[in-house]
Amino acid sequence: MNVALVGSTGFVGSHILTTLLSQPSISAIHAYSRKPLDVSDPSSKLHPIPEPDSSKWPSLYPTNTTLFFSALGTTRLAAGGLANQRKIDVDLNLSLARAAAASSSTSTYVLISSSGANASSMVAYSRMKGETDDAVSEMEGFAHVVILRPGLIAGNRKESRPAEMMARKVAAGLGRIHTGWLKDGWAQDAEVIARAAVRVGEMCVRGEKPEGVGKVWVLGGADIVRLGRTEWRE
After folding, report:
1. Its pTM surpasses 0.85
2. N or C, which terminus of the chain has less Cβ within 10 Å?
3. In this predicted model, what pLDDT tens digit does every residue of 61-74 receive, in sequence order?
C-alpha cells in the first residue's frame, strides 16, 4: 500500500510516520517536509518530499498513492499570527486535499482534527478546524474521508504553551493512576492517535469499515483509544 503524509515532523504526524514505517502492509511512504526528516532508522520505503516552499506541495502530490494522511497544523504563535495560522491549518490543508482528491489513485483521506472543531465556533482554532472538516467532508474524489477528533493530545511535546504543558502533566499523572476513567475521556496520547489513524486508514482501503458508516467517518476520543490502544496489534 502506497501512502502520503503531511505533518510528518509534528507531534502526531511523527508518530504516524513511525507507525507506518513499522507496518508490513505499507510499501511506500511519501512524506512532505520543509527540511530533511530526522528518522533514526531510515527505511527504503520512506520517500521524503523535502520542499521549503509549502505552496508548492500540492503540485508535488505523489502518483499511485492509495491513502493520504494529514496531521498538518500549527499554532498562532509559531505561525506568527492568526492569518498565517489559517494559511496552514485551512488553506494548505485544503489545497493538499484537493490535489489528493484529483488524483486517480487516492481513495482514502485521513485528517487529524480536534474535539472542539466547529465552523460556527467563536474560538478561532476550533472554527478553523471545523471549516477544514466540513470542506473535506464535502469534497468529491474520495471514497472515504476519516476525521479523528482527539481531546488534549498528551505526551512529550517539544513546543508547548504553559497551559498546555500543565494540562499534559496532569493527564500524564492521572494516566499513571488510572488511564481509563481519569484520562481517556479528555486526553489521548499522540502515539495512540497515530495508531488509530493508521488503523482506520487501512480499514477503509481494505473495505473493512464498520457496517452503516458512510463516506465520512468521524472518530472521537473513545474510538481513538479503542482502535489505537485497546484493539491495537503490532
Report:
1. yes
2. C
3. 999 999 999 999 99
